[in-house]
């Protein structure tokens, strides 16, 4: 089934087309959500299902040639809303932040990673979300600002303040720069 046929079938309330949509885009949607929220596969599956439910509920908005980007946007928004609601841990594991095979280094990296998680957890919700979007998920400042519904200038100020606050917290924890 072509994308155009699938969109027309969805708009005609064809649940078989929904099955085709799910089969075709589940790996893509799961990858987006998994990258953003990390951690629990059950949360990822639940959010993925939510994306397809939202697509079904808003099937009149689907446009041929834009289905993938539309689903991707829903997935990103759902995943960031999930993080914003505080339902998830920060996806900073020692292997992601630091890479060493030495057991001594691994122990030190775990401790440093824990301190970094705690420091990030002390930032206010909006700064933390923006910080994660920009530094850990590689979103551009403009894109993160748009997704969060804030002005670009506000996002830049929040990033600067977030970095400053994080530095102060880490220095108090005994981590020098």
Structural class of the helices, strands and pairings? mainly alpha
Rg value: 19 Å
Series of secondary-structure elements, N-terminal to C-terminal: HHHHHHHHH
Average pLDDT, rounded to a whole number, is: 81
CATH C-level label of the largest domain = Mainly Alpha
CATH superfamily of the largest domain: RNA polymerase sigma factor, region 2, helix turn helix motif
Shape: elongated
| CATH third-level topology of the largest domain | Rna Polymerase Sigma Factor, Chain: A
The unreliable regions are 88-101
Major sheet size, sense and barrel closure: none
Strand content: under 5%
Architecture of the largest domain, CATH level 2? Orthogonal Bundle
* Annotation field: number of helices: 9
Number of domains: 2
Give the fraction of residues assigned to helices. over 70%
From the N-terminal CA to the C-terminal CA, the straight-line distance is 56 Å
The beta-strand count equals: 0
């Amino acid at each position: 089934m072509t994308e155009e046929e699938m969109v027309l079938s969805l708009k005609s309330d064809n649940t078989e087309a929904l099955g085709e949509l799910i089969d075709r885009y589940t790996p893509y949607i799961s990858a987006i959500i998994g990258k953003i929220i990390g951690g629990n596969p059950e949360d990822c599956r639940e959010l993925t299902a939510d994306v397809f439910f939202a697509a079904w509920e808003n099937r009149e908005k689907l446009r041929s040639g834009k289905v993938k980007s539309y689903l991707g946007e829903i997935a990103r928004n759902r995943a960031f809303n999930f993080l914003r609601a505080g339902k998830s841990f920060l996806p900073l594991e020692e292997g992601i932040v630091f890479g060493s095979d030495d057991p001594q280094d691994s122990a030190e990296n775990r401790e440093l990673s824990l301190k970094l998680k705690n420091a990030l957890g002390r930032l206010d919700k909006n700064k933390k979300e923006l910080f994660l979007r920009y530094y850990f998920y590689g979103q551009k400042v403009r894109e993160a600002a748009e997704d969060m519904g804030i002005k670009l200038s506000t996002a830049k100020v929040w990033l600067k303040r977030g970095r400053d606050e994080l530095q102060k917290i880490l220095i108090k924890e005994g981590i020098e720069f």
